[in-house]
Specification:
CATH superfamily: Transposase IS200-like
Order of helices and strands: HHEEHHE
Number of strands: 3
Low-confidence stretches: 12-25
CATH topology: Alpha-Beta Plaits
Number of helices: 4
Number of domains: 1
Largest sheet: 3 strands, antiparallel
Shape: globular
Structural class: alpha+beta
Radius of gyration: 15 Å
Helix content: 40-55%
Strand content: 5-15%
Strand order of the largest sheet: 2-1-3
Length: 137
């Protein structure tokens, strides 16, 4: 498969996967305000110390966080911190998948497109008055 074909396959998979999540499949434990508040608090906690939080969204069954890591911060450790803290506080056993999906923002246009996607994800998924979305500091 050449690079342009691979990019198209990745794009189509991403669209299908996003649609699956937006339809509310899987465990939706973050539909509960108490659980969503724990996750939102964890995302905001190290804003301006370990990372710059540009946008975030806690959906019923997944989370988006757009961050810029500060010098010395490590994405894998940040993710582990979020997941272990929130799983412990929510106390419902395994609530996170092992892996996570990350991507690099390449330029100002990509930054704006990604931030718009994160902030508009609840509306796109039909969650008209969803409060678990915001900007960083």
């Amino acid at each position: 498969m050449n690079p342009s074909e691979r990019a198209e396959v990745d794009r189509l998979f991403s669209i299908k996967f996003d649609s699956h999540l937006d339809e509310g499949h899987g465990s939706c434990i973050f539909r509960d305000d108490a659980n969503a508040a724990i996750v939102a608090g964890a995302l905001r906690y190290f804003d301006r110390t370990r990372y710059e939080l540009h946008a975030w969204c806690v959906m019923p069954n997944h989370v988006h966080a757009m961050i810029y890591l500060r010098r010395g911060a490590d994405l894998e450790r940040v993710m582990h911190s979020w997941k272990s803290y929130t799983a412990h506080r929510i106390g419902r056993g395994v609530i996170w998948q092992r892996e996570y999906f990350d991507r690099i923002i390449r330029d100002a246009r990509d930054f704006q497109t990604t931030r718009s996607y994160v902030l508009n994800n609840p509306f796109k998924a039909g969650l008209r008055w969803w409060k678990w979305v915001g900007y960083g500091s």
